[in-house]
Amino acid sequence: MTVPAPPIAMLAELTHRCPLSCPYCSNPLDLARKEAELPAAIWGDVFRQAADLGVLQLHLSGGEPASRRDLSEILGHAVAAGLYTNLITSGIGLTEARIAALADDGLDHVQLSLQGTDAEMADAIGGYAGGFARKMAVAGMLAAAGLPLTLNFVMHRRNMHQLPAAIEMAIALGARRIEVATVQFHGWALPNRGALMPTLEQAREAGRIVKEARARLRGVLVIDYVPADYHASYPKACMNGWGSTGLNVTPEGLVLPCHGAQEIKTLRFDNVRDRPLAEIWRDGAAFNAYRGTDWMQEPCRSCERKTIDFGGCRCQAMALTGDPAATDPVCSKSPHRARIDEMAEGFSQSEAELVHREA
Amino acid sequence: MSLEPSSVPVLPRGVRLHFDKVRDGWVLLAPEHAIRLDAIGHAILSEIDGINSLGGIAHDLAARYDAPVDKVGADCEAFVAKLVDRRILDLV
Questions:
Q1: CB-hemisphere CA count at 13 Å for A15?
Q2: CB-CB neighbors (< 8 A) of B23 in chain A
């Protein structure tokens, strides 16, 4: 077996705790308890191992990372390890003093999530009254502290019409980038497909708006765009290839090839408490399960796109076909594609209510 | 973005040069990006201090590498313009 190239990015889920309860939360359904969370010192050791392994970028995420009272200590370990540090936050739990401390500690960048462009929408989606107002206050504090900002706007049928406003808001808040991501249907989002699935018209309109804004705002605002999955012709290049670029560490220390991988029940995951990170990356069963292209079936095996989209998303293949090694059914070459079209159409017309994440 | 020889580029907070010892090369770290640099890219970025202009950087590099200043200036401008468009470099 060839030795895999080292990873570039690591997502550290410091906690699954979060004051918000977004109905599309990407955390697993079985949330890690506070008592099971890795202490700061172990995170520090993991960060040093990650840097030695070749990781350059560290995303500090959750849950809400600010729910960890020792966030500043954890960040300090990451900075000492020489990693580029990116805090992915809802803003809730951050104060002026905490932000000043993070900026002083050497935090490189912040991604602030946006559930909607007004309080009515944002607080209904996030399930947290007053959240939007607090987030706007935090955005001001981040700017005052000189921290560079990316706005993360998660889109779905209910708020897609706010995309132009979200782009304007990013500029007004001084963000250099906005990530516009249409909800991916995994985990908590799966039972919410009826409440969240965009219509085909909405998905097309979003693509048009992004294209126009990118041309208009060149040199002003960078727009990263994740289109609506079920309405695409080819699947997303999940993780840029399984076990090729990035890894994810859960609050309790499990090392996953992607944040949704626990949906695949046949996989076994190593823990940073038991095994060195380099060994997990190189030899871990979960990482080798879908690494490269040897595991692929038809139509992927003979497809000219197999090193472009890597067969798509393993978790989606599992959720919708029952076989995690199948071609992502979003692919127009998948024998299951007709079902995706039916679901996209059916769910986008549904009147289902939002089901929020549990605490 | 149109650049002039008098334009002064700067690395904003959140963008920095880093020596990647695992892959034995320089990278530019920015939000969601780790850009591998060749010797020319690294030389240009190393000159950027928020004071020196594009013209000045081209002049310094041309002298140091004994290369035609017009050619170096065009390379610098193209390299910097691309990064300014992506909001990875700012102009003072």
A1: 20
A2: 6, 54
